[in-house]
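Dear U.,

For the methods section draft, I wanted the exact inputs and outputs in one place so we can describe them consistently. I've listed the two proteins in the order they'll appear in the manuscript figures. Please don't edit the token lines directly; just add comments below if something needs changing.

First protein:
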Amino acid sequence: MASWLIVLGFWGFSALICLPVLMGGPAAITAFAFLFLLLALSTYLYSASFAALINRLMGRSRTT
């Protein structure tokens, strides 16, 4: 649960900093969609399943 809070806190703080610049119009909708994509990506990169994927890939490359 702490990892989710770290990711949410980081991207939430980033969104609060950028929010005044992005107010209004289609640019705001695009920016929020982009922030949601970054949130999902960073959450996956911080997950155990991504670490397992990297371990599998590194394990395959080390076999001779």
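Second protein (the one for the lower panel):
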Amino acid sequence: MNDLQILTIGISIVLPLSMMIYSNSRVSDVRTSVGEAKETLRAEMALGFARLENKIDHLADLLATHLEEHHKK
């Protein structure tokens, strides 16, 4: 085997391995980003549901007050 053949074999092994390692690190970055996005979305949904619950409670109070005033008449 001459030097050119050894170099070709070395590159054909090293290059795919290095690309695979790089790809795996990018996948890990994406998983981290997706995890952060999920947590943000959950927090925003919880806030939205809390606000909705407050509005429903307020409407229920208004309705109860209205019904009490209506029955007094």
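Candidate sentences for the figure legend, describing the second protein: The two ends are 107 Å apart (CA to CA). Helices lie at 3-72.

Thanks,
Y.
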